[in-house]
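Reopening this one. Same input as before:
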Amino acid sequence: MVALKCIDHIGNKFDSKLAMCTYWKINLGTYTSRIDLGWNQKDALETPVGWIDHLGNKFSSKAEMCEYWKISKTTYDRRAKNGLSLKDILESSVKNMKCKCRDHLGNEFSSISEMCRYWKISISVYHSRSKLGMPLKEILETPVKDKKYKCTDHLGQEFRSLTNMCSYWGTDANTYTYRIEHGWNQKDALETPVRYGLKYKDHLGNEFDCLKDMCKYWGVKIVTYSQRINTYGKAKKEALEYPSPSMILDSNLTSMSLIEKGFYKVTYLGEEDIWTYDELMSYYRSNLESSLAV
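Same output, byte for byte:
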């Protein structure tokens, strides 16, 4: 049996992924990690590996670059998070630089504390929001309403935490934070499949490379599938096979709205009633069977 050849983004064929990575002078592990994070093949193969300073000097790691410029990795990370340019991060001496930072408007402050006082938020709120992966503009400008920050996705849905939001979209908080820090928009950071080498299986045993492919096969949106699994507690079969509300409503059942998990307020034959999710599906199936019998 002839082994499948590996093809790169410009059409070159190789006997294996290892041969392809060797050709592009990149480590196989680095290539695989980038693909798992949702990179396209061109970027995964062509993006240089290593660190480059503001003068164009190349280093094999951040540690090597920091050692060359005689600063610690902790100092580098702190200055980078504070929005300093790479030149300032590397060249400013620790003695002469009292945690100098900039906000999203370019205003300079001698410390994070001074910046937080200017924007009328506490230093603890600043650090909590930073850990959640919030952009600097939102960290500083979002009013402090509650003790707990509610995460909002690109559809306007609110979640109690970043972890809950990522779980809802079938990704993890670390991948989401990494993508946001590297310039991804929120929609792509949440919806782009994370490839771990595992397959998604539907209730019939069909295998798919990612959640997006499985939902596309069944004609269901990812958000609809996630709602049915996480909000309504439905099994995978029901989450994939059940129709959308727009397919259920008809001249008799004219409205429906979720009032709590698994229960709906409906208007049936002009009268309001409370139905369960299963009752809605039973109504839909009976109508579907009737239409097919005609």
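So the earlier flakiness isn't reproducible anymore. For the record, Confidence is low (pLDDT under 50) at residues 95-99.
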